[in-house]
């Protein structure tokens, strides 16, 4: 039995520390980009909450009750060297077999399936990641129900463990996000206030 050829190595491409540092810089730039007229007219807390909602890191959550499995499909299954001797008439590199695909819906940020948390294993899971769902495909000449189910359950359990580790990594960042943004905005308001005081003290009518 083999997994689908489109499966990707999860939780490997990016590092969580780097992602959090990059997000902090993005948040700071977003706070600087808030239009001046809004910063002067609206409460800092309101603006901070708005930006915090936008930049909160949303770790994916698996929707267990929505998992489905496809109908079986006929596919060409590539044989390993140890399997070739089982087929006397084997003359190619593949043989007709069966494939089934699990569809696992989720909510949250898709990119986080490729982010390695601070706590990880040397054997991360594989799956095909789409918008709103991940898929795991199993193919074989003669699929065994218990083996397919065991492999799927093991992969799903591993994915959930990684997501749990991510959730712990980002908890402090998300909790402090509104306060962080508010600090950036207050610093800008202080600069604007000092600028206003400077101009008012120069003794001339202020032009637009």
Would you kindly provide a written description of the structure presented here, covering whatever features stand out?
- The protein has 208 residues and is of the alpha+beta class.
- It has one domain.
- 46% of the residues lie in helices and 22% in strands.
- The chain contains five helices and ten strands.
- The strands form two sheets. Strands 1, 2, 4, 5, 6, 7, 9 and 10 form an eight-stranded antiparallel sheet that branches. A two-stranded parallel sheet has the order 3-8.
- It is rod-shaped, with a radius of gyration of 26 Å.
- The mean pLDDT is 89.
Q: What is the number of strand segments?
A: 10
Number of helices: 5
How far do the termini sit from each other?
A: 73 Å
Strand content: 15-25%
| Radius of gyration from the alpha-carbon trace, in angstroms | 26 Å
Q: Can you give the mean pLDDT?
A: 89
Features:
single chain, alpha+beta, 8-stranded antiparallel sheet, two-stranded parallel ribbon, 10 strands, 46% helix
Explain the layout of strands and helices.
Layout: E1 2-3, E2 8-9, E3 14-15, H1 16-33, H2 36-41, H3 44-55, E4 61-62, E5 68-69, E6 73-78, H4 81-84, E7 94-107, E8 115-116, E9 126-130, E10 133-140, H5 145-200
Parallel strand pairs: 3-8
Antiparallel strand pairs: 1-10, 2-9, 4-7, 5-7, 6-7, 7-10, 9-10
What would you say about this model in short?
The protein is an alpha+beta fold and 208 residues long. The protein is built from 5 helices and 10 strands, in the order βββαααβββαββββα. The chain has one domain (2-197).
